[in-house]
């Protein structure tokens, strides 16, 4: 049976590491956290009014 991993368990294990190993742990996990945040970051919404305005400008420029 697989034991569940909790933040508390991970922190307790990390506290047992040497200071240098804790630094290495942070260096190794930081890039993955950055990737996860980029993937899960919500994309900003654009209002319908803004979208219509941009489309109207595009159509106007084409017809010139």
Characteristic terms for this protein:
single chain; 64 residues; mainly alpha; 3 helices; 73% helix
Overview of this protein structure:
- It is a single chain.
- This protein is 73% helix and 0% strand.
- It is an all-alpha fold.
- The model has no long low-confidence stretch (mean pLDDT 82).
- The chain has one domain (7-63).
Q: Into how many domains do the coordinates divide?
A: 1
Average pLDDT, all residues:
82
Query: What distance separates the N and C termini?
Result: 70 Å
| Beta-strand residue percentage | under 5%
What's the tally of helices?
3
Q: What's the order of the H and E elements? A: HHH
Low-confidence blocks of residues: none
How does the major sheet shape up?
Answer: none
Structural class: mainly alpha
**What gross morphology would you assign?**
elongated
The portion of residues assigned to helices is over 70%
Radius of gyration: 24 Å
According to DSSP, the number of beta strands is 0
Summarize the structure in short:
Helix content is 73%, strand content 0%. By secondary structure, it is mostly helical.
Topology:
Layout: H1 7-15, H2 19-40, H3 48-63
């Amino acid at each position: 049976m697989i034991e569940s991993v909790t933040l508390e368990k991970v922190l307790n294990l990390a506290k047992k590491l040497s200071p240098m190993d804790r630094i290495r742990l942070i260096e190794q996990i930081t890039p993955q956290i950055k990737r996860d945040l980029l993937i899960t970051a919500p994309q900003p919404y654009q209002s319908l009014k803004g979208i219509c305005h941009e489309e109207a400008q595009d159509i106007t420029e084409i017809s010139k």
